[in-house]
Design goal:
The chain is an all-alpha fold. The protein has one domain: DksA, coiled-coil domain (Four Helix Bundle (Hemerythrin (Met), subunit A)), CATH 1.20.120.910. Helices cover about 70% and strands about 0% of the residues. The structure holds zinc ion.
C-alpha cells in the first residue's frame, strides 16, 4: 500500500482510539471494587459483581484493541501499514476500513488453523 493510502487510515484509527479512550474512562466507574458492606441486598450484590465482571471483560477487550490500534498507527509511521504480516501482500482496503487494526489479509486469515 502506498504512503498516501496509508495516511488515509490515520484519522480512522485516531477516531477509534478516541472512542475507546472515552469508553474506558466511562468503564472506570463500573469496574471499581464493590465494597462488601455495601448497603444493598445479597442478591443485588451478586448482581453488581456479575455486572462488574462483564465490565472488566469489556474493558480488557477495549485495552487490547487500543494496543492493536496503536501498533497500526506505528505501522503507518514506518510505512508498513496495510501489509499482511504473513504473506507480505496488501490487505484489502475494505477490510482495513472495517477493521483498521487488521494485520493479515483475508487469504492468510482463512489459511490459519
Ligand atoms: Zn496474507
Amino acid at each position: 500500500m502506498n504512503p498516501t493510502d496509508q495516511e488515509k487510515f490515520r484519522p480512522v484509527i485516531q477516531l477509534r482510539l478516541d472512542a475507546i479512550a472515552a469508553d474506558l474512562s466511562a468503564a472506570q466507574e463500573s469496574t471499581k471494587p464493590i465494597s462488601p458492606d455495601v448497603a444493598i441486598g445479597r442478591l443485588s450484590r451478586l448482581d453488581s459483581m456479575q455486572m462488574q465482571q462483564m465490565a472488566l471483560a469489556g474493558k480488557r477487550r477495549l485495552e487490547d484493541e487500543h494496543a492493536r490500534l496503536h501498533e497500526a498507527m506505528r505501522r503507518i509511521d514506518t510505512g508498513n501499514y496495510g501489509r499482511c504480516f504473513l504473506c507480505g501482500g496488501d490487505i484489502a482496503t475494505e477490510r482495513l476500513e472495517f477493521q483498521p487494526d487488521a494485520v493479515s489479509c483475508v487469504a492468510c486469515l482463512n489459511r490459519r488453523p
